[in-house]
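Contributing new complexes? Match this layout with adenosine-5'-triphosphate.
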Amino acid sequence: MLQTNAPDRSTLVSLSAAGLYRKGRWLVRGVDFSISRGEIVTLIGPNGSGKSTTAKMAIGVTRPDEGQVNRIAGLKVGYVPQKLSIDWTMPLTVDRLMTLTAPLRGREIDAALEATGIRHLARAEVQHLSGGEFQRALLARAIARKPDLLVLDEPVQGVDFAGEIALYDLIKTIRNSTGCGILLISHDLHVVMAETDTVICLNGHVCCRGTPEAVSRSPEYQRLFGARAGQTLAIYNHHHDHTHLADGRVLHADGSVTDHCHPDDGHHHEDGLPVGRAGPMRIVHTHGPDCGCGADHSSPATTGGDNAAENRDA
Ligand SMILES: Nc1ncnc2c1ncn2[C@@H]1O[C@H](COP(=O)(O)OP(=O)(O)OP(=O)(O)O)[C@@H](O)[C@H]1O
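Output block (do not edit by hand):
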């Protein structure tokens, strides 16, 4: 038999003119898109735009009132919902969380916790996990049964900015190692778009779609999120090659540490980014009189705030 290493890109789910009608109105209507194996599709849109509703139609939690949703036979879905009803007064360990709804073998639990980097937390109480650790535990639970399709509704909620980047890296690694399809839902525009193959921008209907670059340039997207939102993506397409340490020195990508950054250095790491969500991002760079980064500190674009100059590095 002919062997091929080409990735399997067969379609897992497709929605065609799908709509859901509840309480006298269409929550979403005319939704068309598909998810293939190995593909990361992201639904973005403002609060209430129908992202979760669309995801639930895609995986069969709800049936569309018009249009069609087709899934491959026997599709295995790993779903991390936006909200989880956990009784936080009851002690619950991470490994118990993994088996709450269905049994798993010990080695499957271990492998999933290992893959998400929290094997050392197997006996930890879920109540005591940080936001990022909790999201990893939910991810571990979703991947443990080796799904064909992973659906993650707001997977970075409660996670700080550096944690967001790490989680999206992890999600990409899971896709690369398992070849599953991934449907991400986010109302953030931050890292999620840059880490995605296909973006579907929703607002009760599909406003625009395509690669992150194409969506961030589209007038519909800019009307929904503001023209500056597109610049967010540019930031994440940059290579962040140095980090400002707490003591003011600079750690470079090659591991060297210098007192200053250099005029020809690339963009800064995310340290110090404001936590603001769903808006244009600014890279905050605290300039000193001789920080040596090469920016014009006297210009209005690089001064402002208390002692910190805010510099859009995009
Ligand atoms: N079963 C339901 N019956 C009536 N309305 C509903 C139902 N489920 C959701 N809605 C409404 O449909 C709209 C879309 O909800 P949905 O949860 O899909 O939005 P979303 O884009 O995921 O929002 P968010 O970013 O806030 O999570 C909202 O106005 C919501 O109140």
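Reviewers usually confirm one structural detail per submission. For this one: The CA atoms of residues 118 and 133 lie 7 Å apart.
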